[in-house]
Design goal:
The protein is α/β, with parallel strands linked by helices. The protein has ten helices and ten strands. The strands form two sheets. An eight-stranded parallel β-sheet has the order 2-1-5-10-9-6-7-8, sandwiched between helices. The structure holds zinc ion.
Amino acid sequence: MATLFITHPDCVAHDPGTGHPESPARLEAVLAAMEEPQFRTLIRREAPLGSKADAARVHGEQFVEAVLASVPQSGRAALDPDTILSKQSGQAALRAIGAITSAVDAVMAGEANNGFCAVRPPGHHAEPDRPMGFCLFNSIAIAARHAQKVGGLGRIAIVDFDVHHGNGTQAVAEDDPSLFFASSHQFPLYPGTGAADETGVGNVVNVPLPAGASGANFRRAYETAILPALDAFAPELVLVSAGFDAHRADPLAGLELEEADFAWVTSRLLEAAQRHARGRLVSILEGGYDLRALAGSAAAHVQALMTAN
Ligand SMILES: [Zn+2]
């Protein structure tokens, strides 16, 4: 048993253009970090193309087709001022879905204890009927539905430690007591949602943190609010929106986390998965825009996943 690491060259090829923070160099930095000797024992796989049927469970068939049809044959197309497509973007978005759904299948089949999907574009801002915030499809919500409909699981938890609120994921989870969604994020900040009083049907936990909040503040949010609620929910699978833009070096936000804080939260989430979900945990890359901080934080995250093996 080991940790699965899934990626695909199509996810590097997606290119929103010069100067866009969600750049191909982000994934290249993560992939370079994974060449270090401590990562030799990872099970490495290329992401298959995700199925449109999987995507349609969250977004509906029409939306899926419309987003894929908006991918330009050359040059770029903007779905909104932040969300820019190049000709590889549709394939990249489908690879991101394929990465996380196949990782769920692998941990369900006992081929790995847990897994990390190093993919882009990110997904947690994509709402059922709206791409936004660099995100086309909500890969993690799609994976939750896949685990339920294909894997036969009941209760799925999604925990999001990206510095931005996962509005799209919350939109999918907030009316559905079979899903649990918890997010720590800077507030106020893009996309503007994620206040503490947004609690869904009692299955949503938002912990807004002010600009300047430290790793200690972050850990307290997990110890006092998110982890107890996660334990009470007793998930059969834990999915993690792993954005690393809460790092102190990140240019898009103002929290003060360090690599060790990402390792810490990963270990606490793994322990919860071990208590309730036979250790099944799958995480997916969301944000993180300082290349060095992103690479170091993703490495700390994967290293923490590997300690469970
Ligand atoms: Zn983010």
